[in-house]
């Protein structure tokens, strides 16, 4: 079923209103939808490299707005909506233990989930549920999602179709390496 959903999302890249479709996919992915917007962004940018920055910008704005919906779900409807969503993602049991540490790691948790393949929707709901300051959540979401979407856009704009296979296969690995380097850089700056 997930493969059919993935193929359907890719087919939308050719739609005349693909930017609107990307906005919707980016929005709902941040709170409930299982397919990341990158799947739609990649073929859109390859087809029209001159629109790479616009496409990344639409994904960023829509994703952050969708993240705010996820935050609201966590803050105001956790038991009715948030908990079932997280349980469907297999994250329900770890929620209590995770919530104790979450706000201590809040900035880093949102940054990491926003950049890596970790389901961003888990962090958006958790941010609202644990009462993370809304400003911190929004600012970190803009930074994280901006890094992710504009990095993908830049790679596709610079290298074109040959980088598509690399991104689709290794995006998770590359973003995890990026986060490790980012954490390492902050660690070095803090202790040097």
TrEMBL record:
Positions of the VTT domain: 36-154
Family annotation (InterPro entries): DedA_domain, VTT_dom
A Pfam family recorded for this sequence: VTT_dom
Amino-acid biosynthesis among keywords: no
Sequence intervals crossing the membrane: 52-78, 105-123, 135-157, 169-189
Keywords carried by this UniProt record: Membrane, Transmembrane, Transmembrane helix
UniProt entry tagged with the keyword Transmembrane: yes
Listed name of the protein: YqaA family protein
């Amino acid at each position: 079923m997930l493969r059919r959903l993935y193929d359907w999302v890719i087919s939308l890249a050719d739609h005349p209103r693909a930017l609107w479709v990307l906005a919707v996919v980016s929005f709902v992915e941040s709170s409930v939808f299982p397919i990341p917007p990158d799947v739609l962004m990649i073929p859109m940018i390859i087809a029209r490299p001159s629109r790479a920055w616009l496409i990344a910008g639409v994904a960023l704005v829509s994703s952050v707005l969708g993240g705010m919906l996820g935050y609201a779900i966590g803050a105001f409807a956790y038991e009715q909506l948030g908990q079932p969503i997280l349980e469907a993602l297999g994250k329900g049991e770890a929620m209590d233990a995770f919530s104790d540490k979450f706000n201590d790691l809040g900035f880093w948790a949102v940054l990491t989930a926003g950049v890596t393949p970790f389901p961003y929707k888990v962090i958006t709901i958790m941010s609202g549920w644990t009462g993370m300051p809304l400003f911190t959540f929004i600012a970190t979401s803009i930074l994280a999602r901006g890094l992710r979407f504009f990095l993908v856009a830049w790679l596709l704009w610079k290298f074109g179709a040959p980088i598509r296979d690399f991104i689709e296969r290794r995006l998770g690995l590359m973003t995890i390496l990026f986060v490790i380097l980012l954490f390492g850089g902050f660690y070095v700056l803090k202790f040097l």
